[in-house]
Amino acid sequence: MFELKNTDLFELEEEDFDTVLATDIVFTGEIRFAKPFMIKGSVSGLITATSDLVVDTNAKVVADITAERVLVRGSVEGNIDGKQLVFVASTGSVTGDICSAQVVLEPGSSFSGKCTMVK
To answer: Entry's PANTHER family (predicted)?
Structure first.
């Protein structure tokens, strides 16, 4: 396995997040947040953040996402703009365009869309 700078996002457990959208929650609308946020349930709409987002395993997101760093372990349908990093884990899938300074697609992940890396 390779090392990434700022891997603290990958080491965070559910209890480390101020806000967790639980597995039994289905949310439709716009979400804005400034502290790390974890989605375990279903979201459709728009997600805008000045912090980090984790789409956990089995979570389903149908939304365009803007955040500092995005870790996808579940499913995302929509465009992702990760200012610093977009990481799609082996359990994750993204259908949509990704734009970020750094993009990582783990073996086993699924991605369908355009990828643009910007400085």
So the answer is: HYPOTHETICAL CYTOSOLIC PROTEIN, POLYMER-FORMING CYTOSKELETAL PROTEIN
